[in-house]
Structure formats: C-alpha cells, structure tokens
C-alpha cells in the first residue's frame, strides 16, 4: 500500500512539470472507489495551478477558463501509482484514469481499484472535504508538538501503536513507520496511549519525523532511477530496526525481535529496548 512518503515523492515528481498544464481531455476507465463527481468534459481547458498533498491524498488544484475554482483529490488506494507520461501508450487494463494535459498525460494505474479521483470545489467542499475532515496533523506541521500529542492522548487506553496508526492525531505513521518510530523512541507499542509522558511524546514525534524523512529521501533517490514516473514504487527500502524482523536479533541489543498482533496488524518490537 502506498504510504505517505511514497505519495509525497510522487507529488514532488509532478511539481513543476504539471503546474501550469491545461487539461485537454479526461479519460475514465473502470469505476474507481467513488465517481468523479463532475462531468469529465467540464474540466476541459482547466489549468493545474498547484500540486498539493494532505495525508495520503494528492490534491490537484485547478482553475477553470472562466476563473472557477476546483480540484481533483487523488488517492492511490492499495495498489495505485501515478505517472506523468510524455507520450502515453494506449491505456492498459489497469489504467483507470487519464488526465490528458498540455504537459503530458497523468495516468493512474490501479490493479485493485481501491484508488480514487474525486472532484471538489475545494479541499473543504463536497466529497474531498468529507474524506479529509478527520485527518490528523501533518507530521511536519509545527503545531505537532510533544504537548499537543500528550494532550490528544490524554485518557486514551488504546495502545500507543494503535493511536499512532489511527491517523486522527497525526497522519503518515503507517504500520512500518509506526513500528520503527516506536523502536527508535524506546516506547513499548503496547503502552496505553494516555500513559506516555510529555517528554516521551516529544521524542516520539521527533522519531516519526525522522523515519518519514528518511523514507522520503530514499524514495527521492530511487525515483531518479526511473526513466519516467510510471511504475510501482512499492515500499522504499528503508533499513528497518524491527519491522519484518521477527526472531532476528535486535540491531541494538541482539535480543530477538518480537511480533504481536494489535488491531489486526502486525507489530514488531524489541522487548528489551522498548519500555512501558
Ligand atoms: Zn533491542
């Protein structure tokens, strides 16, 4: 599943190339998760004015020829990838959305079709507004402080791992990144969220940022190896301390890494290095 770093690297790959492009045509393939929400022909002549991101959504801000505002909210679902193609071959069986522009064809390839492309008058309106309204802060938002996290976790008995993963406090800490950040911060993933002290909250945020930042950097470098942006990035080759390493020696204390299930997801952790 594409995680926030993959989505951010995709966004960066489109910046500059797509901004200023005018929409020539919109081709829809098989239905995605939700309908487009506008007659595709109405978008002809609209200009892409910004390529933004919120959580794992990309927002293409658009301006119509008559000055109308709007945008397309794009989610890659479980298996989607976006490519900007100079010369697009005919759409394949898994290509379900083409935005044909004066700067190339933005194509969504999504074999499992959990992805979505949805029009809204703004990020706050219509279906985009609904999809985004419960998202937590961006990981690099200055408002995300130890104090903020501490206040939001107060009284919550759910485990800190699940509180991170829920995405309603901070977005982007997907399963790999949550496991790795908790390891680096020395926090036992089973700790009830409300019991994490303020200093440990501050440390945890630092580690969430560090892990996501590293993944973005790795993605950025692997992206340059692609001849075009069309391809499945998969998970970036982050060197993990614990994720996917059940039974292997902890890279710090050499004790075996453990795997448990929390909220139906695997959690990997070191019972020595991570404390309650
Ligand atoms: Zn250890």
Task: Write a structural description.
The two termini are 30 Å apart. Helix 5 crosses helix 6. The chain is elongated. It has a four-stranded antiparallel sheet with strand order 1-6-7-5, with no helix packed on it. A four-stranded antiparallel sheet has the order 2-3-4-8, sandwiched between helices. The protein is an alpha+beta fold. Zinc ion binds next to loops.
Topology diagram in text:
Elements lengths: L3 H11 L8 E6 L18 E8 L2 E7 L5 E7 L5 E5 L9 E7 L2 E6 L6 E5 L5 H7 L13 H8 L6 H6 L9 H11 L12 H26 L34 E5 L2 E5 L7
Helix pairs in contact: 1-6, 3-6, 5-6
Spatial order of strands in the largest sheet: 1-6-7-5
Mean pLDDT across all amino acids? 92
Sheet having the most strands: 4 strands, antiparallel
How does the overall form come out from the CA principal axes? elongated
Ligand inventory: zinc ion
**Total helical segments:** 6
| Distance between the ends | 30 Å
Strand content: 15-25%
The run of helices and strands is HEEEEEEEEHHHHHEE
């Amino acid at each position: 599943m594409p995680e926030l770093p993959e989505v951010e690297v995709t966004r960066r790959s489109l910046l500059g190339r797509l901004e200023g492009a005018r929409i020539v045509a919109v081709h829809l393939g098989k239905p995605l998760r939700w309908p487009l929400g506008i007659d595709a022909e109405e978008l002809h002549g609209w200009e892409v004015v910004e390529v933004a991101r919120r959580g794992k959504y990309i927002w293409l801000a658009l301006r119509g020829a008559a000055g109308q505002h709007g945008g397309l909210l794009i989610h890659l679902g479980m298996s989607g990838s976006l490519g900007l193609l100079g010369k697009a071959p005919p759409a394949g069986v898994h290509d379900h959305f083409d935005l044909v522009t004066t700067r190339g064809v933005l194509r969504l390839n999504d074999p499992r079709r959990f992805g979505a492309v949805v029009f809204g008058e703004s990020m706050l309106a219509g279906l985009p507004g609904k999809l985004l309204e419960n998202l937590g802060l961006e990981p690099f938002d200055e408002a995300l402080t130890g104090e903020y996290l501490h206040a939001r976790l107060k009284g919550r008995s759910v485990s800190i791992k699940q509180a991170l993963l829920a995405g309603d406090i901070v977005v982007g800490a997907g399963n790999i990144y949550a496991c790795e950040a908790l390891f680096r911060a020395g926090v036992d993933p089973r700790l009830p969220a409300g019991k994490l002290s303020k200093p440990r909250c501050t440390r945890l945020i630092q580690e969430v940022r560090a892990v996501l930042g590293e993944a973005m950097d790795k993605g950025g470098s692997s992206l340059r190896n692609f001849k075009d942006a069309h391809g499945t990035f998969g998970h970036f080759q982050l060197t993990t301390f614990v994720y996917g390493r059940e039974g292997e020696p902890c890279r710090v204390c050499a004790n075996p890494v453990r795997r448990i299930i929390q909220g139906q997801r695997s959690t990997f952790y070191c019972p020595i290095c991570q404390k309650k």
